[in-house]
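G., the chain you wanted modeled:
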Amino acid sequence: MNLGDSAYAELKSWIVDGRLPGGTGVSEAELALALGLGKAPVRSALARLAQDGLVTSSARRGWRIAPITLADILDVFQLRRELEPMAARLATQRGVDAALLKRLDVGCKAGYVPGHAASQRSFLAANRAFHLAIAEAAGSPRLLRVLSGLLDEAERALLLGLALRNRSDEIKHEHQALIDAMSSGDTATAERIMAEQVDEARDMVIAALMASPSVLSAEIATAPAPKRRA
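Predicted structure as C-alpha cells:
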C-alpha cells in the first residue's frame, strides 16, 4: 500500500466512524500533520474521498467533510433495500458458507454500549463484515463493490442510531434467522429477513436524526406560493 492509499484508508475510517464529523472544515496541512505524512498523499486521498462523496472541496475554504442529510440517508437505505435482499437471495441460491457467517456474527453478538464510541465502531465493523460476506457469496463483484460503498455511507448514520438505543439482542436474532434461512436454501425467507433488517436500521437512524437538536431547531423551508394568472 502506497502513502496515498494509506492516507485514503485512514481518513475514510475517520469520516465513516465519526471522528471527522460531517460539516467539519479541514485543511491538507492539518490532516498531513495528524497522519504524519506529506501533503501530496493527503491531497490524493482527499480527491478520492471527494469521488466517494465523503468530502467536498472549495477553492477558498479548503476541504469540508460532507454532512449527513435526511435525503442522503433515505437514498442510501432505499438502495440497500433494493440490493441487499437480492444479494441474500443470490447467495442462498448459490449456497452460502454458514460456518463463515456464524464466525463473522460472533463480533455482532458481543453487542455494543450506546454512546460508547469504541464498542459501537467494533460492532459496526463486525456487522459490515457479516453483510459483505453475504454480498460476496452472491457472486457478483459489481454488487459487492456497490454495497461496500453504501455500507460505508450508511455507517456514518448508523453511529447516530446506535447511540440512541441498544439493538444488540434484536440483531442477534435477525442474524441467526437469516443464517438459518440461507442454510436451508429458503430464498424467500432470506430475502424477507434481509429487507426487514435494512428497514429496522433505517428507522433507527431516522429516529436518532429526528431527535438531534440541530434537526429539531432547523427552520422548515416552504415552497413559494404559485403565482396567480392574470
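Residues 70-94 form the longest helix (25 residues).

Shout if anything looks off.
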